[in-house]
Design goal:
Order of helices and strands: EHEHHEHHEHEHEHEHEHEEHEEEH
Radius of gyration: 20 Å
Shape: globular
Distance between the termini: 34 Å
Strand order of the largest sheet: 8-9-7-10-13-12-11
CATH superfamily of the largest domain: Dihydrodipicolinate Reductase, domain 2
CATH class of the largest domain: Alpha Beta
Number of helices: 12
Number of domains: 2
């Protein structure tokens, strides 16, 4: 397959390059970048020296659609929706890593992202690319809305109990922590070393843009309108997300039974690893990989359940899930190009 990437020199785009450089069924032929046109990709990212020899090109999606089989758009919100049209989608599959097509209600998208949606006619068609949940829909899609990093980790941590109706959906509180790469590669004062190092802080409190995405997906899972408290935190590490979610149980069940439910949902899902026996997920055990580690603990004293998840925000939270979506769309083994162990130390 011939692959084009728009936004190849951001963190997520560069991670797609890293993953696809050794993918046995894919070849990148277009490294799109607004800032580094005509500059060698390996001069921007030295880790790709002698691996990628191509230069960066622009963002001409019409020309790109004539050249490749699939386009990844790893771009800020609003760009993909301004580029896609029926002519593009009739020629090439598009996997969008922005939020442009994740939320089905355009008014909700415009409220939370504070921009006008440029192609709302494609929102209903776009498939939410959470591979473990929407695999059958992904297979025949032209346009994939690759999920956000916080929503992926949050949803997979909560999904089995939400689907089984075993938690009170009105009681969900999600506490999440992410490494600084989640903020993107653009220069921002708040992301400078001295601002981030030796510090942890909450941000986007009661206003983070991933909130409606999490709520929408949990609503689909539970069959109820879901409203949550979601608070993200920035921690001084490059990669990783840790989610700790809390909810009231609707049935008096034991921890062993809860674990069995999670195993029944995920034991056949290669990239979701259920931790048993009270083991808590840690970001260090998933770094650099497409794995999500999930752990569950019932608090007998309060009658609540604590649902935990850890993953790499740039891999399963962005580029890895995008590649997994591509594999499904082109009827490849989902693990293709992603079947490697996490990094440690």
């Amino acid at each position: 397959m011939k692959v084009g990437i728009i936004g190849a020199t951001g963190y997520a785009g560069a991670e797609i390059v890293r993953l696809l450089s050794f993918h046995p069924e894919a070849k990148i032929v277009w490294y799109g970048s607004r800032s580094y046109v005509d500059k060698k990709f390996s001069d921007v990212f030295g880790n790709m020296f002698r691996i990628v020899n191509d230069v960066c090109k622009g963002e001409n999606i019409a020309e790109l659609a004539e050249t490749v089989d699939v386009i990844f758009t790893a771009t800020p919100q609003g760009l993909c929706s301004s580029l896609v049209n029926e002519d593009i989608l009739s020629k090439v599959k598009v996997i969008d890593l922005s939020a442009d097509f994740r939320i089905k209600d355009v008014s909700v998208y415009e409220k939370w992202y504070q921009i006008e949606h440029k192609s709302p006619r494609f929102i209903d068609e776009a498939v939410y690319g959470l591979c473990e949940i929407n695999r059958d829909k992904i297979k025949n899609a032209r346009l994939i809305a690759n999920p956000g990093c916080y929503p992926t980790c949050s949803f997979l941590s909560i999904y089995p109990l939400a689907k089984e109706g075993l938690i009170d959906m009105d009681s969900i509180i999600i506490d999440a922590k992410s490494g600084t790469s989640g903020a993107g590669r653009g220069a921002k004062v708040n992301n400078l070393y001295c601002e981030v190092n030796e510090n942890i802080k909450a941000y986007g409190v009661a206003s983070h843009r991933h909130t409606p995405e999490i709520e929408e997906q949990l609503s689909y899972a539970s069959g109820k309108d879901v409203v949550i408290n979601f608070t993200p935190h920035l921690v001084p590490m490059n990669r990783g997300i840790l989610v700790t979610a809390y909810a009231n149980l609707t049935k008096d069940i034991g921890n062993d039974e809860i674990e069995k439910i999670y195993h029944s949902y995920y034991d056949d899902e290669y990239f979701v690893r259920v931790l048993s026996g009270g083991v808590c997920p840690e970001t260090r055990w998933v770094e650099g990989s497409n794995f999500v580690d999930v752990g569950i603990k019932k608090d007998d004293r309060t009658g609540r359940v604590i649902m935990m998840g850890a993953m790499d925000n740039l891999v399963k939270g962005a580029a890895g899930q995008a590649v997994q979506n591509m594999n499904i769309m082109f009827e490849l083994d989902e693990r293709c190009g992603l079947n490697f162990a996490p990094l440690f130390p």
